[in-house]
Amino acid sequence: MRLCVQHLTKEFTGTRGERVLALSDISLDIEPKEFICLLGPSGCGKTTLLRIIGGLEQATSGCIAINSHHVSGPDPMMAMIFQEYSLFPWRTIRDNIAFGLEIRNVQREEREEAVDTYLSLVGLTEFAESYPYELSGGMRQRVAVARALAINPGILLMDEPFGALDAQTRNMMQRELLDIWQKTKKTIIFVTHSVDEAVFLADRIVVLTPRPGTIREVIPIDLPRPRDRTSEDFLRIRRFVLSLIDETMATREDL
Amino acid sequence: MRWYTKLILPIILIFVWEVLAILIGNEFILPRIESVIEVLFRPLANIFGQGSLVENSAVSVFRVLLGFFIGLLAAIPLGIFMGRSDALEEFVDPVIQVLRPIPPIAWLPLALAWFKIGLAGIIFIIFIGAFFPVLINTIDGVKRVSRTWIETACTFGAKEAQILSKVVVPAAMPDIWTGLRVGFGIAWMSVVAAEMLPGTSSGLGFLILFGLNIGQLQVTIAGMIVIGLIGLGIDYLMKRVEMRYFGWKGLEK
């Protein structure tokens, strides 16, 4: 699924009625099955960009298209995974994963079948009848991934999904996500502020600069997977991306 | 706390009561415990031609349930829409803030003026008692529904009706239920007060006033105990439902 963002601009009205430019002239072409990381310091508008793509917010100008059909509002071809606490605590894990299918009025049997498939894909079959509060943070995010995959979207939008997890769990989740991505062949747009995470995951990293959010650079990462965080190449790219971010922060401090 | 420590104070109070009753020696001021127990242990006996304890309890419970259900049928939908729409809330809220502090009993004169003496007036008082706590808690509950849950539903393409039925109502249900518990408590107090209206000839409220009027205070006290026990019993049931179905509340993080 090809996603095309063209000359996207987003303006907010500030607390004193002034206009704040959050995103300025963002253009981006995302190939089918590509893993894209939107990377930048807080306030660079990366989450806003993801939310506009996901249809949760409206752009002030510019447009978004999937396979050349225009997107306005939540699109059935996309599913979103939030940072945390997005599971419904009154539903079991099984019913949480079935949620999107219920919204689309999919028949019960078909729903159950899809739920079983994705429960086993994220390795949580034995927790089907548990409730979210009985699971750890990492397991809950796997449920959120399964819930998003259950509607079989072409594109997964992920908003710092592992940001609230501890370092070990986070690394494990990153490996599992790559596994799932390779098995399911989705396009993934992944927001993060972690350079390490972006270099580990992405086919291409889109580096955003803050206020207004603009694309500073698009960096292809052609390291073979699985990537070794301690390898010379990994560290070199990581240093390069870090220096880019530092540069954007520095120009900001000069202001 | 061990279970028997809870019994110490009630036993002392009963003992003090009995001693005082014997010292005073006047059943018209403070009847002895035996006389009250005699009334309580014959719940089906007709009390001076005004029906039994059970019959009068049933009348009060029927009235309170009727008024309570009408109240929640009005309050829950209004609360949901007010919680979802800032414009509607701004529009209605000032009126609610002014009416809410008026005790249900203060509506008695109007109830009499509008509905005369009879069931409708009593139901009206109970309705007022139940309506506001249910409404306020419903609005609060709906407004506190996590934005992420609603956005999750939105990204799956949910329509407003689905967002309401699959996210907002289940998410707000623990708060709505709290409103129902508070509302029922107030409705139960209101029905007893409303039954003391002139012209009422049944119900626990009527019975305890009747006990005074014929100089049989043991009937009054027995009636008060039954009022307390029914209120406690229903609140206990509602608490059980809360723990069974809304136990997730507070654990969602």
Keywords for this structure?
heterodimer, A: 255 residues, alpha/beta, 2 domains, six-stranded mixed β-sheet, B: 253 residues, mainly alpha, MetI-like fold, 10 helices
Describe this structure in words.
The complex is a heterodimer of chains A (255) and B (253). Chain A is of the alpha/beta class and 255 residues long. Chain A folds into two domains: 177 residues, P-loop containing nucleotide triphosphate hydrolases (Rossmann fold, 3-Layer(aba) Sandwich); 65 residues, no CATH class. Chain A is built from eight helices and ten strands. Chain A has a six-stranded mixed beta sheet with strand order 6-7-8-3-9-10, sandwiched between helices. A four-stranded antiparallel beta sheet of chain A has the order 2-1-4-5, covered by helices on one side. Chain B has a single domain, classed as Orthogonal Bundle (MetI-like fold). In chain B, helix 2 packs across helix 10, helix 3 runs antiparallel to helix 4 and helix 3 runs antiparallel to helix 8. The longest helix of chain B has 35 residues. Classes of the chains: A alpha/beta (255), B mainly alpha (253). At the A-B interface, strand 6 and helix 3 of A face helix 7 and helix 8 of B.
Helix content of chain A: 25-40%
The average pLDDT of chain A is 91
Largest sheet of chain A: 6 strands, mixed
Distance between the termini of chain B: 30 Å
* Inertia-based shape of chain A: globular
Give the helix/strand class of chain B.
mainly alpha
CATH topology of chain B: MetI-like fold
CATH architecture descriptor of the largest domain in chain A = 3-Layer(aba) Sandwich
Oligomer: heterodimer
The proportion of residues in beta strands of chain B is under 5%
CATH architecture of chain B: Orthogonal Bundle
Radius of gyration of chain A equals: 19 Å
In terms of structural class, how would the helical and strand content of chain A be classed?
alpha/beta
User: Low-confidence stretches of chain B at least 5 residues in length (pLDDT < 50)?
Assistant: none
CATH class of chain B: Mainly Alpha
The greatest inter-chain interface is formed by: A-B, 24 and 23 residues
